[in-house]
Amino acid sequence: MLSSIKHSIIMLFLGLGFFGHAQTIEVCPTCPISSIKEAIKIAQPNDTIIVKKGTYKAYDIVIDKPLTIIGKDHPVIDGDLKGEIITITSDYVTLDGFFIINVGTSYTKDYAAVRVKRSQHFVIQNLVLEKLFFGIYLEKSKNGKVFHNKIVGNAVAEHNSGNGIQLWYSQNVEIEHNFVEGVRDGIYLEFSDYCTIKNNVSSNNLRYGLHFMFSNNDVYENNTFENNGAGVAVMFSKFIKMYNNIFTENWGTASYGLLLKEINDADIRNNTFKENTVGINIEGSNRVNYSNNDFISNGWAVRVRGACYTNKFTENNFLYNSFDISYNSKVNDNIFDRNFWSSYTGYDLDKNGIGDVPYRPVKLFSYIVNRTPETIILLRSLFIDIIDFSEKVSPVFTPDNLMDQNPMIKQIP
Amino acid sequence: MLKILKYSFYDLMRSRWSYVYFAFYLLLGVVLLFLNNNLSKAIITLMNVIIVLVPLIGTIFGVMYYYNSKEFTELLLAQPLKRSSIFLGQYLGVALSLSMSLILGLGIPFIFYGLFKSNVIWDFSLLLITGTFLTFIFTALAFNIALSNENKIKGFGYAILLWLFLAVVYDGIFLMSLILFEDYPLDKLSLTGTMLNPIDLSRTLILLKLDISALLGYTGAIFKRFFGTNLGFIVSLTMLLVWVILPVLRIVSKSKRKDF
Amino acid sequence: MIQIEQLHKQFGKNVVLNGVDLNINNGGIFAVLGPNGSGKTTLIKSILGMVVPNKGTISIQGTNIKKNSEYRKHIDYLPQIANFPNNLKVKELIRMIKDLRGETTNEQELIARFKLEPFLDKKLGNLSGGTKQKVNIVLTFMFNSPLVILDEPTTGLDPIALIHLKALIQAEKEKGKTVLITSHIMSFVEEIADEIVFLLEGVIYFKGTLHELKTKTSQPDLEHAIASILTTNHA
């Protein structure tokens, strides 16, 4: 219902926008025009092609003029594993409502179900992609939208699988309400700036649910990243905003809810990190603000490795993590202030809601575990509690200025 | 044996110490839940308490019961009863009454708190199961110590030492050896080390529930198989059972050879 | 009734029984005497199966007691120190022992004789030493077994109870039972015992009637007879 309203609005818009000259071409297996390629060939710019229910075997479909191509009742485009299926090379193309399967796999070419090449103002929506190599691949494209697509891969190994939605040198793209699973990276941005990634669910992917490389000024919010090889990776990027996302059950040896590597000036707010091996893994990242996040039942809520300067952790909830913070150096230049720590045991005599003794989130044991990982088996042992306590009283191995001077007594709402 | 068990159990259920123990757990449960108002935190605190305190109380109580009922035991020995039935009966009486105090003491406040509607019920049940196992293991160890030592003071001394060793010292040595041999693959060593100490074993069982996220962070293949599948759970439970059976067998054989 | 052959027992390096041979075939009251550490209690406990001998055999009513517990059905034993589970009531203790051994013959009569009715609902932990000993006696005599073993039965008893106890022992003898007693009270032994079994340094030094013992040592009473044995042996 909703999507049909959207269709009509889009068609209305297109109709009005292009002086009403646009025509509609119908494609169905028994129609005079029974192939999509043929329909594109005869269509004039700004025409609408309506593809009816049926299975269309086709690959290398090139959309080289501004067209609106709509599938009715999800017609199937079967690429027969022969190569790329749809390539968009024109501006103002809308692709809507197809079931696209069997993208060819190659070790030399990144075949995609849908590729947008050097184009603007595209809309790709309501697609279902299965048995794919790459899903939706945006290449040097701008100002487009990728909405409501469902991408279900069956990737087993990283080297011969592709990404669900990939952006390469693309700007100002909105990626919303997509559902991606079973591919290498759910959503991958490389050299892509000013993109918005909202309300997506990315789960069960081999590598990352979402992956940024050399991309700046992007925003992602309200997404859920569950049970991926390693959650979300943000690398070599600047000014990324990460709001209201959920990172859960990213379990494994090199698994994180969020991996930050060489990230500067990011803002991480209102996210939930739950039951990940590592909530956030930070390497060489500076001036990042972490506020109002919930870290719940992670192995490590935050693991800081390498040089990280002037990061700020304020008003976060650290709840029942095996380790709250882990550091691998004795130097600390980061600020922890007004967080709630469930393992804080201090008191609040002046009843101002702030604990009267500072909290030290780095335990000696986390230092030991960094050094000899197998010692993790002694977690929560009385002996470990004793040595942690002695370290707390007089820090020798852990940064002595690393503490939250104002630990909150009540959980932050 | 069942008759002895019955009378030992009745005797203990009426003893002051059972009430103290029961009241302690009741209080602990109430304080943790109703003052803290946080189920997850309560479970974590409880785990620390159970792993440290249950073995201590099991050992002390076991030794105490044995020495206190020595004359009564002699009376029983003169009756047409098998020695194994007398000692197993008494052992089970102590272990059962302690377990009852633990389960009821903690269970009642948790039920009132609305445990059945909460999803931590499995964590909680696991805690109680582990606590019960620890009670059975350490009471059996205590009986072993008492059977081997006529001298009460010595018996108590050894009991405390045993607890101190298994609860603290063992882990210290364990940690040192892991750090010392960190250049070698330590998967097997660390898992074996855990299996050989019932307290560590119970801790692992609980870690599997509470800290699985952290445990899965390690590369070793054996670790992965142990923690990533049900294997760890099954092996730990089996080992706990072995830890009950072995000392009980020794109670039987030791009691057969002993002079009273 | 009781056959003991070459019984040896040592605790560590301390030899307690060093080849005891003892045959008791008939009924009657036998007092097992001897200085401290002579092995009286060890002997009794061996008969009861509480001490496991190093060597030798013990047969009760013709059956070897080794690895056997059923023979104890035929023994009533009064232990030296009566200490019962503190939280049980007297009534419950009696019921429990009955539960463990089977039906009794004269439980009510015994309770009446030692005036224990007011204590039946009291916890054992709250009783005085004498009352506990009375309960102990009731527990022993309420079964009708052919062999009765009493270890220091007089401990803590008042004169009236003592009279009752003596009467009880006599009554058991008249039923043709074998009664084995250890005691430090020589007058008690002298009054009640038919035969004396005297243990010294782990062997039976003397077994015979009171009269024979007096004749052998040419002493007027038991106390002096024993003193004389001890002085001649240690002189």
What's the rounded overall pLDDT mean of chain C? 85
The residue fraction in helices of chain A comes out at 10-25%
Q: What is the 3D form of chain A? A: elongated
Topology, number of strands of chain C? 10
Q: So what's the CATH class of chain A?
A: Mainly Beta
What's the CATH H-level superfamily name of chain A?
A: Single-stranded right-handed beta-helix, Pectin lyase-like
Q: Uncertain spans of chain A, ≥5 residues at pLDDT below 50?
A: 15-19
N-to-C span of chain C: 37 Å
Oligomer: heterotrimer
Percent helix of chain C, as a range, is: 25-40%
Give the DSSP E fraction of chain C (strand runs of 2 or more residues): 25-35%
- Please indicate the count of domains of chain A: 1
Salient structural properties:
heterotrimer; A: 413 residues; mainly beta; Pectate Lyase C-like; 14-stranded parallel beta sheet; 13-stranded parallel beta sheet; 39 strands; 10% helix; 34% strand; elongated; C: 235 residues; alpha/beta; Rossmann fold; six-stranded mixed beta sheet; four-stranded antiparallel beta sheet; 10 strands; 36% helix; 26% strand
Walk me through this protein's architecture.
The complex is a heterotrimer of chains A (413), B (260) and C (235). In chain A, 10% of the residues lie in helices and 34% in strands. With 413 residues, chain A is mainly beta. The longest helix of chain A is centred in the first third of the chain and has 16 residues, at 2-17. Mean pLDDT of chain A is 89; it is low at 15-19. Chain B is mainly alpha-helical. Chain C has helices spanning 40-48, 90-101, 107-113, 129-141, 159-174, 186-192, 210-217, 222-234; strands spanning 2-11, 14-24, 28-33, 55-60, 63-64, 75-78, 147-151, 178-182, 195-200, 203-209. The longest helix of chain C has 16 residues, at 159-174. Classes of the chains: A mainly beta (413), B mainly alpha (260), C alpha/beta (235). Chains in contact: A-B, B-C. At the A-B interface, helix 4 of A face helix 3, helix 7, helix 8, helix 9 and helix 10 of B.
